[in-house]
Amino acid sequence: MTAFDAEDGSLVREFALDERFISGQLRQAHVHGDGGDGERPVLVVLDQFRGLRGTVFQFDLTTGERVCPDTWGKRRKPWGRTWPRMSAAFPHRGADGRRNLLLGWNDGRVERVDAVTGEAAGPRMRGTGRREVWSLTAFTTADGTALLAGGDADGLLRAWDPATGRPAGGPVKAHNGPINHLVPYAADGRILLATGATDHSVRIWDPETWTPLGAMMVHPENTLGLCAYQAGGRTVLAVASDRLHRYDALTGQPVGEPVDGWEEDACLAVGAVRVGGRVALFGADENGVRRLDGATGEEWPAGPA
User: Fold this and answer.
1) Residues 6+ apart with CB under 8 A from 295
2) Which of 84, 193, 260, 290 has the lowest CB atom count within 10 Å?
């Protein structure tokens, strides 16, 4: 893992993972906290080891040092003849204020563990099936309801009450393939949820009713990255696929032209950061990371903002 300065593009630091467990596929990376609570932000990384398990690494984002014990997907008891494989991880602040991790498994279960000790931090959650959990997120709706949401390998979207672990929405057949991205965001006074899947599509959902909104966004390739940001007076969804696409986050209508010029004809990941009053949109391929203006989609010149 490598971190760059979002303002001038300079290298900040690298995060060294344990080479005994690295398979070459880093499935997810999230930042836990922004430092506003007196704790330093932590980078949470899920690595897939030869398709057999997942390992969650945690790093102090300021120093690059490893913090807390690694959470291994193979620390659980066998399920039948196979080991449950950790397939999703997401940082979550518990009701007691402690750092937790949401962990999804290939038997359909979701659990919360204390990010520091690795001990259980609440009841396990389960959907209606036994298919692999591909994505997880946590958010609060406009009416103040806290939810945990997950997407599985069958394209089902479901939610749980974080206090009780009981179902609080779904399952909804959201896609025809595994849901690999869940992005909650604010738009038009509401909290909405965008889902991206391997069926080449992205959809917008109202998590209070679990009904789809706007147009389905379809691409020639899988959804490889998804993020939401505000620029130009509206909320925009950026999608990494064959190209980098931008859409209105309420209607699903395209915003500007897709951005071309990616190595191997695919944008592999996307993220957005506010820099100096503007939004910098970052897209990555096998050749490196490009910085774009989030409002226009045009190249952001190298050097300081």
Assistant:
1) 231, 232, 278, 279
2) 260
